[in-house]
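# nightly structure sweep
# worker-07 picked up a monomer target from the shared queue
# config: single-sequence mode, recycle default, output format = structure tokens
# input follows
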Amino acid sequence: MPRVNDIIPYYEMCQREGTSLQRGMNFHLHGKHSVILMSVRPNAPYADRVEEEGRVLIYEGHNENKTTDCKYPDLVDQPEFTKTGRPTENGKFKEAALAFKSSSQPPERVRVYEKIKDGIWSYNGVFHLEDAWTEQAEKRKVFKFKLTAVQGEEDDSQPVSYNPNPGRMIPTSVKREVWKRDGGKCAQCGSDQNLHFDHIIPWSRGGSSTNVENIQLLCAAHNLSKSDDIL
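# output follows
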């Protein structure tokens, strides 16, 4: 089961979520939780952003599908409803966010995966969907969704803490630089399997998530042995 900052192949993400993750927004999969795929890389298709040292994710909604009737989806308003009147993923996420904001239902739990580079994904953990709105982006309107990091992880039957885990999300720019520096391999043994972005000095002890020198790639075995040493 992946933990925050684990590197995870695409096929393992799909296996874990029990579906082919062909789209970036996946609302309430199997009636349990939602899944979003994010990217803040240069030239990413959507303007996702991370705020408050990883506590908050502002996620941009998704475009109309490209069809003969809509040849340029990035030039038209992002849709809330399909042509048959059913909510799109934008609409479903908006409805859930506003229901939480009005205190009519608990927050939607969302698992977040981040694209680091082609074929390389990182698990960013569980977030709560807390708000939704539209913004003007040049000549069209786009959806924005606010998600807040929470403690407590993967079993959907388990309660989670509403206290954010400060500094836990390592910025994409740092992840990309560390991946390049360490050659996509464990800094200790050179393995390219079961990798994890590791804080050399844990952030809970004052270690930085934004300093490349404090982040390394470790395989599962060396990450575990390091944890044992710290304890």
